[in-house]
Amino acid sequence: MATTMSQILVVDGDAKVLSAFERLFVGKYNVVTFPESEEALKWLKENQGVAVIVSCANLPGRGGAQFLKASEAIVPLATRIMLTAQSSVDVFKKAVNEAGVFMFLTKPCTPQELTSAVEAALANNARIAAERVLLEKTLTGSVKLMIDMLSLFHPEAFSRTAVMRRQALLIAKRLGMKKTWELEMSVMFSPLGEALLPKEILTRYRAARALSEPQREVLARAPVQTRDLLKNIPQLEKVAQALYLSGRGYDGSGFPEDGPIGKDIPLHSRVLKLLTDLWYASPEDGLDAASFEALNINRKQYDPDLLEVARACLLGEAGPDQDHVLVLCHIRELKPGDVLVDDVLTEGNHELVLSRGHQLSVTTIRRLDQYNHVSGVRQPLRIFRSAPVAEKKLEPASA
């Protein structure tokens, strides 16, 4: 089976160096070359799968160290190598401290030196990528457990996360986003600020009732509290910032008053604002065309391009795909991965226990069972469940 060759970017003002890399690694690695920094950076923004970046120290344009520093913001996992004819300690210190250089090579280099350096850099890149995947999986599992618990204690606040996550992934696919982890984390944590609010303030805010000045101050601090809670957790710094700016309007309205405007607002923040407002504009049975019409009243608050993308891909969404079946069952028959079709309510006073669209885990099923024994839960429940390979249509099944 064919495999994708590792991609290596080489940027050097010496044409002989560029051709040497191309000849040495032809057929083994995918080598892309540029003679100066600016064109290389433009290319990087469109090709972020680069594993190794090689640059000379005296690079035309912004210089080797500054180029490698700029590239780190675009492709942080790439391994960086600097080629230099200088032996200055200051050059080395600047490259290491500012550009995160993995290795130095002194010109002229032998083919063996170049080959060994590139192979070591590729191995380092593979190790970093594997560690990143492991960390993200571990963090995702921890976040999922946390959200499951919070959704049980604050069902109203977290009722929208499952639906919004599915919608966010559809938008991301339409936009061609290859990495969605931070967007998913932003959606999952988006109700955290509401969960931190006193119930009286949240109730009055949702009902569009007047708030006192102290209540408005508490409400205004919610995004700051969310950011401060998350920003010190490794890998969640960008998520914290996206949530902090998720109330910022595209036209400069909203919170914070001195925040960015238009495209300067992070994309994840713009997606969150749009999907959150769509949720509150939608009827109980889900998103419809009227939901988007409701947003048109304040349409300047939303990225116009993003609004059209959302309209195009979300109005055609019809819930779980054909690989799921509709099942009617009791709590004892629930399985991890099942998705609630309806809200789970208490038997007596019909209080919300868990919201529709929630994907169940071992923890939430166990908690539902405990809740049922204490307070009683209306059953049977309707859920969507992954269908066996042979089944390709929705078929209600009784318990």
TrEMBL record:
SUPFAM superfamilies: CheY-like. It comes from the Bacteria. SMART domains: REC (SM00448). It holds the Pfam family Response_reg. Residues 7-122 form the Response regulatory domain. PANTHER family: CYCLIC DI-GMP PHOSPHODIESTERASE TM_0186-RELATED (PTHR45228). This is HD domain-containing phosphohydrolase. It comes from Roseibium algae.
